[in-house]
Amino acid sequence: MNRRRFISCAASTGLLLTGGVGHVLANDAPPIDTLHLTDEQWRARLTPEQYAVLRYSETEYAGTSQLNHEYRAGIYVCAGCDLPLFKSEWKYDSRTGWPSYWDVIHEHVTTRKMIYAYRAPVEYRCARCDGHHGHIFNDGPQPTGLRYCSNGTALTFVPA
Q1: What CATH superfamily classification does 20-159 receive?
Q2: Which of 25, 35, 90, 96 could disulfide-link to 129, CB 3.0 to 4.6 Å?
Q3: Which position among 78, 81, 126, 149 bears the catalytic label?
Q4: Active-site annotation holds for 149
Q5: Per-residue model confidence as pLDDT tens digits over 2-23
C-alpha cells in the first residue's frame, strides 16, 4: 500500500467512525442561509447568558430555565437567529431540569459527535447561526425514543 492510498483510507475511516458529523438536509428542504456575525455583534445581540451558551457551548444550571414550565401552544426558536427548532407539542417533562423535546425540525439543526469522548452524547446546534443548544439522548418517549435536552436560554418561545 502506498502512502497516498494509506492516507486516503485513513481519512475515509475517520468519517465513518464519526457518523458523518453534521446533518443531511431532506431531499426537498431548501438550504438554510447561514448567519455570520462578529464577536462584537453577537455580544450586542445576546444576553451574557445566551452568549455563553450559544457561542461557547456553556450549560445553564438545571432547573433555572423559565421554559421548563412553558406548555402553551407555539414554537421554540433559536435565541440567536429566530430559526424555528421545536413545536410545543413535542415538549415534555423529562424531569432533568432542562426543557426537553422528543422531536426537532431536522432541517434546522446540525449534529456533532465528539469522537474523542466515548459514550458522549450527540451535540445539536442551530443550522443558521451555529449556536449550541444542547444534546441528544436515547432515553426519550415514543415515537422517536429521543430526548433533545436544551438550554432554555438558547431558545425563545413564540406563542401561537
Answers
A1: Peptide methionine sulfoxide reductase. (2.170.150.20)
A2: 35
A3: 149
A4: yes
A5: 544 444 444 443 433 334 334 4
